[in-house]
Each structure stands twice: as C-alpha cells, then as structure tokens.
Q: What sequence folds into this?
C-alpha cells in the first residue's frame, strides 16, 4: 500500500468519525423534553421543554 493511499484511508476514517459524532449530537438534541416515570409513588410527568 502506497503512502498516498494510506493517507486517503486515514482521511476517510477521520471524516466518518466526525460525521458520526455530529449525527449522534443531533440525535441527542432532538429528544423530546418530556419524561414519564412510573414507580412506587405513581406516575409522574416532567416537561423540560
């Protein structure tokens, strides 16, 4: 494997890692702001939005 192709593979992996990080961040931000809990005290709903 030549040096240029090795650099190309590394660049593609870095770009994929950055894209995955951005995708994960956006998915976490898109979560709804409502939390529903059911426990011994009953049902509680917290709206964080």
A:
């Amino acid at each position: 494997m030549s040096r240029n192709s090795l650099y190309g593979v590394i660049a593609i992996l870095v770009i994929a890692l950055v894209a995955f990080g951005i995708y994960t961040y956006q998915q976490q931000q898109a979560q709804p702001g409502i939390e529903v809990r059911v426990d011994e005290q009953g049902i509680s709903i917290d709206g964080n939005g």
